[in-house]
Amino acid sequence: MKHFDVVVVGGGHAGCEAAAASARMGAKTALLTLQKAGLGMMSCNPAIGGLGKGHLVREIDAFDGLMGVAGDKAGIQFRLLNRSKGPAVQGPRTQADRKLYKSAIQDLIAAQPNLTVIEGEVVDFIRHGQAVTGAVLADGSEIQARAIVLTAGTFLNGVIHVGDKRTSGGRVGELPSIRLADRLVAFNLPRGRLKTGTPPRLDGSTINWAHLELQHADEQPTMLSFLNDQPQARQIGCGITETNQRTHDIVRENLERSAMYGGHVVGVGPRYCPSIEDKIVRFADKTSHQVFLEPEGLDDTTVYPNGISTSLPAEVQTAYVRSIRGLENTVILQPGYAIEYDFFDPRCLTPSLAVKGFDGLFFAGQINGTTGYEEAAAQGLVAGLNAAAMALGRAEVLFTRTSSYIGVMVDDLISRGVTEPYRMFTSRAEYRLILRADNADQRLTPQAIALGCVGEARRRRFEEKAELLARYKSELEEKTYTSNQLAGFGFKVRQDGARRTAFGALSQLDTPYQEVALRLFDFPQMPEAVLAQLWRESLYSNYADRQSAEAENLKRDEDLRIPADFDYAVLPGLSGELRAKLTQHRPSTIAQAGRIEGMTPAALVLVLSRIRSRQ
Ligand code: FAD
Q: Where is the tRNA uridine 5-carboxymethylaminomethyl modification enzyme C-terminal subdomain domain (predicted)?
């Protein structure tokens, strides 16, 4: 029998990131997946990053993860979303060449020391009581591990729907994972059904591009990874078109034939990624919806029409697609479909994504009720780090709401659960002025270096950058100017006679104008990237100080751990309702307990005093 410290089941975005993170921690890791060739596959849209999601990618990158590096290698259209808004809510995104992305991930996995990829279907776990100690493959072979991370995505009892046709599948062309789903029943975990959908894929050579507006890549690209400055692949444009009244009529007339609306699907779909059927029903007064025509690769004519996912029958898909400007003669290469799958209520997980009540079992990705590559990869990072930490006898690696979007997501999932597929938004983070995509490395890479999961090249690059930022910031803070002097330089500052530091004055610039700042502050050597970063910090410094103080308060509550065996039954004065909720959710910290619906300050004080009396 083979032995590993950590076994990761599933080679999607969660699995690849989990396995790589575990291996970077120094754990001997196996990645078990149905198809080696499927590592790094994008099941749906060919894009990485975006609003909120770009923050997650940067945070994964800060831990030396795969997604940002692979996205930069495969990126064919880099755009910074929300460019006109403040840096805190801007989201780096790139459209990716599917094949390049896959091969970038496969190269990174192959080059990762401590990591072995094994092809096969996991059909069961080896258990000794509540300890999970290995995986059983379909051929009967067994692999032992100290910790297992399950990342089976949309495969557990996956059912694909096109109109009234149902087929079993994990995603198109791939078998579902049924035996493992059956075996997991014995774990008696709360479980439900969710669904997601994908649009038809179009043959780009049959699109009338001349009739379409084009959206181009940014002239000055913003990369996903802190390691990169420039795209590596050729940059291309996307077409933009829109649905019209006729498209909507076709969809409306055929609604009953859609798997979703014909009553064939029981799972709940992602509200923020609605199908064309959902759009027509939910936004009935809208006469048109934008459709982005995104090429799937540089040497591939397949086009992904972003905005029209569907589970209508194939012939209806052809009719509505051809009603759209520029797509009048378009050929569909693969019809859109909806997929329904099992997920587990993430409230059964701890902050390290370990399954409560079991030793050595972690869950990450779509099976925890999320949707999206970035959400999956970020959970993979958390579960991979923690599975390795457990296997190596090290302390848990925790992400909090005050440190990262990853912490926000994990906390949302484990304390609130999901009623629909969860995706990240900047609005989910209370402290978004301090949790920016641009400072993810400053926030997290020191922790990652301390854990020993950052490669030498990244460590050196990060430390050089941190040294430059600290040096120039302190020099800018030492120089002071009167409001008069600053006005003379063209700064819009209140004429209050007060002296301001050069660092504070930076925030008055609309953009980090190299020339003005360098002339004014006389720092000819300061690299432009350093100036741009200090400008962002200056922009938010007042608010950030306030948020940091609030975050400190929350952190104190997050640090107050509630023991896993805490007995709520013996707490006098706790209402029956709250006792039941606390016993069911088993919050790991006082902060999490505070977020349980209906929780009162008085109840929190009771829990707190009990913990203190036990210390
Ligand atoms: P997956 O990427 O699904 O990977 C699961 C992995 O587990 C696969 O490698 C599989 O081979 C492996 N596996 C499964 N069972 C076993 C087993 N028993 N043994 C060994 N290996 C196993 N996201 C969006 O953000 N927006 C969308 O609009 C969107 N639409 C989607 C539409 C469709 C049809 C699909 C399929 C997905 C869609 N997604 C969308 C979701 C996105 O693809 C997922 O969120 C993301 O891929 C989840 O990553 P994951 O690693 O959790 O799982």
A: 538-609
Q: What is the pLDDT of residue 514?
A: 63
Q: Which pLDDT score, from 0 to 100, does residue 298 have?
A: 96
- pLDDT category at 350 given cuts 50, 70, 90 is very high
- With the most atoms of ligand 1 within 8 angstroms of its CB, the residue from 16, 31, 33, 375 to mutate is 33
Give the single-character DSSP code of 64: T
Count Cβ atoms within 10 A of the Cβ of residue 314 and give its class: 0-12 exposed, 13-18 middle, 19 or more buried.
middle
> Tokens standing for 12?
């999607």
What Å distances lie between residue 234 and 75, 199, 207, 237, CA to CA? 8, 25, 21, 10
- The radius of gyration of the chain's CA atoms, rounded to the nearest angstrom, is 26
CA 202 to chain centre: 27
- pLDDT bin (cut points 50, 70, 90) of residue 525 is confident
More confidently predicted of 269 and 107: 107
- For CA atoms 439, 444, 449, 450, the dihedral sign is positive
Average pLDDT over residues 432-444: 95
CA distance 350 to 120: 28
CA of 489 to the centre of ligand 1 (A): 55
Distance 372 CA to ligand 1 centre (A): 8
pLDDT at site 16: 98
